[in-house]
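Curious: why this fold?
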Amino acid sequence: MTVVDYTGIKKKDAETVASVLGIFLADLQIFYANLRGFHWNIKGKSFFALHAKFEEQYDYIAEKIDEVAERILMLGETPENNYSYYLKLSSLKEVSGVSCEIEIVNTILDTYKILIDKERVILEIAEERKDEATVSLMSDYIREQEKTVWMFASFLEAQCKQ
């Protein structure tokens, strides 16, 4: 017997949710790699604050990557684990050679917009399939990330007033 046999989620429903989570996992992995690059390459007057903030962000995303991969496993599927696959599947693009704080923060905000939109779709799909654990996970991510968006948007607003 598998985990799904004990949860009450139909196998077909679990497969559907795991499939959309697999695409989301690819997005998170690309975002993680981009955040590492931003952390390493940031320059400018806000270097110290943003260098630390980007590290906090990639640690946060690394935690989400693990949670999503584990959720896929709980749903009876196997998460992919190679970047060539992620690059094919993700709607996010690799970003390199960027060191300007405003450009980086705008890129992060654009990425969170994409992720939050996808999380809402996953939430709906999971809700339709009575997968409350995935619904809860996505709901928590949306709440956390909306706060992060607010903070980064506030940072940009302050930069524009200087």
Remarks:
- The mean pLDDT is 95.
- The domain at 8-160 is CATH 1.20.1260.10 (Ferritin).
- The CA atoms of residues 32 and 43 lie 19 Å apart.
- The first helix runs from residue 3 to 7.
